[in-house]
Amino acid sequence: MIKLRSLRARIFLLILVIGLVPCIVMRHGIVSNYEDMAVEQRITVVQNQLMILANHLVSNNYLSSHGVREDTGNSREVINAELEMLSNLYEGRVMIINKNFKVEKDTYGISEGKTIISEEVIKCFQGENISHYDPEHGYIEMTTPIMDTTANTTDENGKKNPDAIRGVMLTSISNDSIVNAREVLNRKAYIMEVIMIVAILALAILLSRVLTMPFNRVTQAINAVREGFSDETISVPDYVETVHIVDAFNQLLKRMKALDDSRQEFVANVSHELKTPMTSIKVLADSLLAQDDAPAELYREFMEDITSEIDRENQIITDLLALVKMDKKVQDLNIVSLNINDLTELILKRLRPIARKKDVEVVFESVRPVVAEVDEVKMTLIMTNLVENAIKYNKDHGWVKVVLDADHQYFTFEVSDSGIGIPEESLAHICERFYRVDKSHSREIGGTGLGLAITKSAVLMHKGSLTVTSTEGQGSCFLVKIPLMYIAS
Predict the structure, then answer these.
(1) Last residue of a domain, one of 275, 306, 327
(2) Which of 40, 105, 226, 292 is the most exposed place for a label (fewest CB within 10 A)?
(3) Above pLDDT 90, what percent of the chain?
(4) Are residues 350 and 322 in the same domain?
(5) How distant is the alpha carbon of residue 40 from its chain centre?
(6) How much of the chain exceeds pLDDT 70, in percent?
C-alpha cells in the first residue's frame, strides 16, 4: 500500500485531482449552460412569435382602444386559431388581457372574463417585458405588450410608450422538452465522465510509477552502498533533482571514504608513535640489564634517555587527548569578550625566550585594537602553536612577524617567518594528524605531528578559517580569520 507521505502517492493524488476536477466541472458546466441557453433561445423564439401575434391583434382590432371587443368575424377566429396552435406547439397557455385587466382570451378557456392584476402584468403595461423561468415546476412565464403601431411606440427617453399599449399577452409554456434533452445530455456526459475518470486513474497510476522510478533507483543504489555490495559513486541523471541528490551523496561517500582512510592512518600513526618510545625504553632497559657491572655514569645516561622517551610519550598522549576533546561536538566554548592585542602581547612575551635561543627576532604589528568574542584557552592555543612552530622551524638569525588586523566582521591573526618553508605538495596535508614534512627534522625539534591538527580544530570551533602559503626554503605564512562576534549553532 502506498503511503500518503510518499512522493508517488502525492503525484498520484495531484494528477487525479488535476484530471477529475476539470472533468466534473466541465460536465456540470455543459449541462447547466445547455439549459440556460435552451431557455434563453426558447424565450427569444416565443417572444418573436408573440410579437407577430400582437401585431395581428392590433391590426385586426382584436381589442378596442377602450378594452371592449369588436366583432371582426373571421379575423377573430383566425387569431384564436393561431393562439391555440401556439399554445399546443409549446404545450402552454396564452391569455390576452385588455387595459381593464380583464382576460379577453384564455387558450385553456377557464379564465375568460376574469380580472388579473399581477406585478408582471402591471409592469408590462408600463412598457417592461418580463420573462421568468421556474426550473422547479418546469415552465417559462413571459409577458408581451400589445402595441398600437399607429401611435408613438416610444417616449422621449426611448422607452416603450405606455399609452401605445392596448393589452398584454401573458404566456406560460412548458419546459419539458428542454428538461428531457438536458437529462439525455447529462447521462451522456456522465458516461463520458466515468470513462475519463477511469482513464485519468490509469494515467495517474502509470505516471506516479514512472516519475518516481529514478528516485527508486537512487534508493536502491544507496542501499547497495550501505549493505557493502558496492562502494562506487552512483549516477541517476534522469532529473535535475536526482542529479543533485546523487552528487550530494557521492560527495558524502567520498568524505566517508576519506574519513575511513584517515581513521585507519590515524590508528596506524598512533600505534607507531606510541610504540617507538616504548621500543626505545625497552632497548635501553635491556642494555642496562645485560651489563652486570655497568658504571653509575652509564646508568645515569640511560635513565636520562628513558626519562626523555617517557616525556615524549606523555606529550603524545596529552596532544591526543586534546585532539579528541576538540573532535567532540558537544564540547562548549567558554566565550568571553577578549582584547586580542593584549593576549598576543602576552603570548609573544612567553615565547621570545625560545626565539632568543635560536637568535630569531619576533616582531608584532598591531594594525588596530581588536576586541572579539572567543574562548581564551583555545585562542591562546591557536596563537601559541603557530608562533612556536614559526620559531622552531626557522633558520638561525631569522625572523617571525605577527600581524593583527580586523574589519567590521572578522579579525585576522597572521604569522609569517623566514624559515625552511613547506613543499607545495605538502601544503594540503600539514593539518593532518601526525603528518610531518621532514620526519627526522621534526623529531629532532620534538614535535608530535598533532599541533596543527589541534590548531585547525580550535579555529573551526570558532567558525573561522586557517590558510597557509609557503615557499620552500624561503618561509611560510599562516593566516587565521575568526568572526568578531561568536554565533552559536
Answers:
(1) 327
(2) 292
(3) 15
(4) no
(5) 49
(6) 82
